[in-house]
Design brief:
2 copies of one chain form a homodimer. Helix content of chain A is 25%, strand content 32%. The first copy, chain A, has 154 residues and is an alpha+beta fold. The first copy, chain A, is globular.
């Protein structure tokens, strides 16, 4: 299953920008939901901060891959400037890690264990991968607030 | 399975920046691979361009979701400025779309079909989601070039 992790840097930041609340009045016969734009379950600082998108396919030789991937997530989460990470794989794998700035990304990249893992990845585990390092300009989120009733809600 | 799509805008751009080629000499007894940093199977223009990271969990009511998700990928791929998209879901879903600039992102967001899909998403399909709009500063890729032999390769 995909994993989500909130970094220590994220806990103290200001809340994720929340779009104007909105409600929906459904047509007759449909189940009613009141939905509001609310902060999601984790908090990012105000932009800018950074997202590193790592997209990959495995080679088929995954000996040690799972343990190392798990170790890397744990280790990354301890690094200064780490804000969070999401990762999902189903054939194609996408991992997006969030960092406060370029310096924290560089420091993590130079971490000895991370460097060894990346070298092993190229040598054994990955068929191909792409890395995109991007500066987050804006963000927003949504979380469902169910309000089920028989009457259309306001 | 995750899907990848190369946008029309990507085909004419310059090649993905390629790191300095490197080879690896394995220890005795291990299978040998020569690996080089090569362009991956799709091409992005030189940065900057944009990545939109959409991370979500479904509500459980997925009636129509699959068809609409597929339709949105096809439709997005026809929009001016579209560069590519990757999408994987396993409980958590991550979709990263790539765009030439903010204007193309805004135009896609205002597309009538896309707007309707987003509204339905909030009303029915999504438990929660996050959107991060980010400017790609740099990118690189790797693709394995297997060179299997009994002797360590140079």
């Amino acid at each position: 299953m995909g994993d989500r992790l909130r970094g220590p840097g994220a806990a103290t930041g200001s809340q994720l920008r929340v779009p104007v609340p909105a409600t929906f009045t459904p047509t007759v016969g449909h189940r009613c939901y009141t939905y509001r734009m609310q902060p999601t379950s984790r908090v990012f600082p105000d932009p800018p901060y950074y997202a590193v998108v790592f997209t990959s396919r495995l080679s088929g030789d995954d000996d040690g891959y799972g343990d190392t991937a798990e170790r890397m997530v744990q280790l990354a989460a301890q690094q200064p400037g780490f804000l969070g990470v999401d990762s999902v794989r189903d054939g194609l794998g996408i991992t997006v890690s969030y960092w406060r700035d370029e310096a924290s990304i560089a420091a993590w990249r130079q971490h000895a264990e991370h460097t060894l893992a990346r070298e092993t990845g190229r040598r054994r585990w990955y068929e191909e991968f792409e890395v995109h390092v991007a500066e987050v300009k804006r963000h927003y989120g949504f979380r469902r607030t169910p309000d089920v009733s028989d009457e259309p809600s306001q």
